[in-house]
Amino acid sequence: MLAVAVVALVTVGITGTYLGATCQSRGTVLLETLPALAPPIGNPSFAKIESLVVDGRPYPPSASRAISVDPHGSLEIRGYAADPSARIPVVAVFAVVDGGARTYRATYGADGARRAPAGDFNESRATGYHVVVPAADLSPGAHTIALRAVPRKLDGYYGVGVPVHLMSR
After folding, report:
1. Is the pTM of this model over 0.70?
2. Which residue of 27, 39, 51, 108 shows the fewest CB atoms closer than 10 Å?
3. What is the model's pLDDT at position 97?
4. Alpha-carbon distances, residue 145 vs 38, 41, 99, 154 (angstroms)
5. Partners of 75 in the beta sheet?
6. Domains (ranges, CATH) in the chain?
């Protein structure tokens, strides 16, 4: 998993280039420059954290207290995310550490078991994500990991689930 400090690029149409998805109309944008988008009212099922594993141990996806992580361990998050306005898969999902100190791009669309509810979205089988944040990349102390789903219009990002709070030893 490639970690990039401060800057995460999103390009248009998914090509797997430098932390980017590729889009022919808008070129490259910085993830940090995208505004937060409010989810549509009455449609809470567009994105979810389904599993949270720290150092090989499962935790509730909405853990309210900081989870201790071993410096040689990792945080693994799985779930699904779809564009709630277009009802299609998003361009990319990112795990953002401490507001942008480090950014990790999730593997997206390959996990058929994790998907948005079929009745809610077109192409629902292509909405699963999986991201790993290595604890070795985190300095000792408290950290917040927030997930961001970027829609195809590249006009902002949707928050996915609640932020995960870690305490790195």
Report:
1. yes
2. 27
3. 94
4. 19, 25, 8, 21
5. 54, 133
6. 47-168 (2.60.40)
Q: Tell me what pLDDT residue 121 has.
A: 60
In contact, 10 and 122? CB cutoff 8 Å: no
| pLDDT computed for residue 20 by the predictor | 38
Cα gap 61→5, rounded to integer Å: 25
Residue 4 token pair: 């990039």
pLDDT beneath 50: ranges in the chain:
1-27
Report the alpha-carbon distance of residue 158 to residue 153 in Å, rounded. 12
How far, rounded to the nearest angstrom, does the alpha carbon of residue 156 sit from its chain's CA centroid? 13
Q: Which of 58, 59, 39 is nearest to 116 (CA)?
A: 39
And the tokens for 140? 């000792």
